[in-house]
Amino acid sequence: MPDSRKQRGLSSRTLKVVGSVLIVLSLLGSLVSPTDPDFANLTIAVLCEALSWMAIPLYAWLLVEGYAHTRSRWAYGLRLLGLALISEVPYDLVTSGRVVDWTSQNPLFALVICLATLALVDVYAPESAAWRWARILGLTAAGALWIFLLHAGVRQQVMQAGILLLLLTVIFHTLARHENTMMMSAAILSACFFILPSMGVALLHYRNGSRGMTHAWQKWFFYVFYPLILLIFAGMRAAVL
């Protein structure tokens, strides 16, 4: 008999769908020029961008889940890096209208650094290590510095989405055995980043732990989705602005 409890709540697939919708919201906001005199349009753009920040905890959680269950962490990391490189030009076209823009790199680069940080935490700060939390803090600070220097995941020159991604992945990974402490810590931290990311943490409270994937193509769809939707919106931005 199937476990009815497992059938309720949000699967990983559902979380990915919600995250994808929130990414589209962010891209919709990019279609409005910051010099647009229409206050209603600017308000909608700001709301779309702000609501998209709810996706940050979702992707932090999904990265930790992927890290824990992947067959090869090297292959997982290389896939993310390849996807980040492919997505960079379309991301720059959408966010700034330029082919190359060094003021912000797409958040997939932040995810790659998050993944590397988790791997280093497991190597240099295992459960039995003395000064474990000091090592975790040091490795997290190093990862945050790389994200900051690369401007990975900077949104509207205001939201340090990449750094929040890193901090949440470390919390989800290191406090996985302490559900209440983990979720409370993530919610408090997210609230410090303009409140809305904490709503994403609230969504995670309703996760059911299942993958929800019934076909292999669904996994690859979510890999293709980001660069594809960036290309679509880059074309739309060129046509509109």
Polypeptide structure, described:
- There is one protein chain.
- This protein has 241 residues and is mainly α.
- Helices cover 71% and strands 2% of the residues.
- The chain contains eleven helices and two strands.
- A two-stranded antiparallel ribbon has the order 1-2.
- Helix 2 crosses helix 4 (55-69).
- The longest helix has 25 residues, at 216-240.
SS-based structural class? mainly alpha
Task: Spell the H/E element sequence.
Answer: HHHHHHHEEHHHH
Q: What is the terminal separation in angstroms? A: 56 Å
Broad shape: globular
Beta-strand level of the residues, as a percent range?
A: under 5%
Quick description:
With 241 residues, the chain is mostly helical. It is built from eleven helices and two strands.
Describe the structure using short key phrases.
single chain; 241 residues; mainly alpha; two-stranded antiparallel sheet; 2% strand; disordered N terminus
SSE blueprint:
Blueprint: H1 4-7, H2 12-29, H3 39-52, H4 55-69, H5 73-95, H6 107-124, H7 132-150, E1 154-155, E2 159-160, H8 161-174, H9 179-191, H10 197-204, H11 216-240
Antiparallel strand pairs: 1-2
Helix pairs in contact: 2-3, 2-4, 2-11, 4-6, 4-8, 4-10, 5-6, 5-11, 6-7, 6-8, 7-8, 8-9, 9-10
